[in-house]
Design brief:
257 residues; 7 strands; seven-stranded parallel beta sheet; alpha/beta; single chain
């Protein structure tokens, strides 16, 4: 059965690959992001695509975009909250202003669209919400203070929402990728708020983006609540949960530089 799938941050990386892999079975793809050209380029390579230039931190724009989508298609079956931006700066150097940008994009950007679409999902008693968290949503990591805080906040919000929706047919999946081979490190914000503009070696050799998306799709199909993607990062998630003293011993060996 075909679905209406809304992907934020669809212009590159995981979002772009999600669009390519969900380009099947007559699915309708809502491709949104701040930069219009990458979305239009992507739309030419997939079928049934609708492009929306959208800043997920702007609630007024989200209200307008949601109304347009629901008026045209009547529903959104799958919402994939993928828009986000990482961080590459020490806590002592970054301003709260830049930190607020990280929180607005990574936390409020996700819940803004979720809350806008939730009434329509509740009315139909159907829907799937995918939330792109991070391994940094499960433990802190040097140079990621506000980013990790935003991702941790996602878990508190969506765990609560999932429990509130337990008697409905609306499912929530939290995705926690570690290092994936995308440009996330290039686009990460430095202390000044400018892009890092460097590819981290760890991301360059990270999980291939097509493999990452296949894991996400499999987890959604299996109705999982959380999925972890990576190698050493996944090990650290379990280590912090079950042997925290050993986690801290290992984590403290990571250079903040």
């Amino acid at each position: 059965m075909s679905k209406v799938i809304w992907i934020t941050g669809a212009g590159s990386g995981i979002g772009e690959e999600l669009a390519k892999q969900y380009n099947e079975n007559g699915n309708t793809l809502i491709l949104s992001g701040r930069k219009i050209q990458p979305l239009e380029d992507l739309a030419k390579t997939v079928q049934n695509a609708h492009v929306l230039q959208l800043d997920v931190t702007n609630e007024a724009d989200i209200a307008v975009a949601t109304q347009k989508v629901l008026s045209k298609y009547g529903r959104v079956d799958v919402l994939i909250n993928n828009a986000g931006v990482s961080q590459r700066s020490l806590t002592k150097d970054i301003t709260n202003e830049v930190g607020k940008t990280l929180m607005d994009v990574n936390f409020y950007g996700s819940i803004n669209l979720t809350k806008a679409l939730l009434p329509s999902m509740l009315a139909k008693n159907s829907g799937e919400i995918v939330v792109m968290s991070s391994a940094a949503g499960k433990f802190g990591f040097p140079l990621r203070s506000y980013y990790a805080a935003a991702k941790h906040a996602l878990h508190g919000f969506y765990d609560t929402l999932a429990l509130e929706l337990r008697d409905t047919n609306i499912h929530i999946l939290l995705v926690c990728p570690g290092r994936v081979n995308t440009d996330i490190s290039k686009n990460a914000l430095t202390a000044s708020g400018n892009p890092h503009d460097k590819m981290d070696k760890s991301h360059e050799t990270g999980v291939p983006v097509d493999k990452c998306v296949r894991i996400i799709r499999k987890a959604l199909k299996r109705k999982k609540h959380e999925v972890y993607i990576g190698s050493g990062e996944v090990f650290l998630i379990y280590l912090k949960r079950y042997i925290p003293s050993l986690f801290w011993y290992i984590a403290k060996k990571v250079s903040p530089k």
